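Intended use. Records like the one below are meant for learning the mapping from a protein sequence to its folded structure. Do not use them to infer anything beyond what is encoded.
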Amino acid sequence: MLWLEDRLRPAAAPSWKRDSLGVGLLLVVFIAMVSSWGGNLGSPTPAQPPQTVQHIDAGQVQYLVNVPGQMASIYLLLALGFALALRCGAVDLSIWAAAGAGGVVAASLINAGVGAAWSFAASCGAGLALGAFNGAMVGLLRLPSVLVTPVAGAGVLWLMQSSVDPKGVAVSAEAFRGLAILPYPPMLAGRMLVVAGAYSLVMVVMVILDTAAGRGVRLGRRTELFAALAASGALSGLAGACWLIDCNQAPFPSAVIGDLRAPAAAVLAGAIYFSGRSRTLLTGIALPPALLAATIWRQQAWLVSSLSPAWNMTLLMVAVLTVQLLLGRLFATRRPAKSHAAGA
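Structure written out for the chain above:
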């Protein structure tokens, strides 16, 4: 009897036709979203008022906010963690709780006088602790991730709700004054650098692991699951800390499952579709444009404007998974059938 995570894990056999079609599907969705985009992915947050624009052309600011700012948002870290878990067959439904815990830890430490860098490191540690717990339950005890991660996330949310002010934990913008690389938005470029740095570090680790796998050095199945879920938790915790840069207040999730653009981006980037060596790296490379496409889909309520954002994201994931499944069945590499004589 197969383990649930073994059923969800992408097939090991590579297929360049299948993977090329997966990249093509992402390009089609991305082009359709960007071409239909009205140029507005959201207004500045209260911590970034429009009147602070200085020495930067308004059109350039809007581009910075809407395009690179969205692809290097906190949701890239959430999507990357979700994708790493999904590549191993695990579904991490605790990413929102880990982000909330990371934000609360970072905000509390900053308010206590700890520097932003150490506070952000602690937020990673908080997320890592939750991810390690998930990894131990799933990788070592073989409990299903679709049950373990939401229960663990619910426990973290209960702990936060019972010990933290429901209004959240606010921090002063002065704590991030060193990140004010551009006049407007004051911290946007700094947040993008933090997110891009974490994203690049994960990509480097993926290259190292892929090179090692090519030389026959591979992680065991249990270790792989544990590492993926632990990394997902750490990235989510850092995402919660990065939220402070944008909003000066820790995220406080009201439900275990929050904004679905991160899972949608992971699915659109082929996390459950691409198969074989180097495909996790390919998924990571595809994540930023996939995130932008998912964000535009969510903001514009594309196709069905009457649906809520959550249902619109669900519709996107179902549609993409359906097309990927059909393409996979149609173009997957076929193994030659054994002859009766050979089996005799």
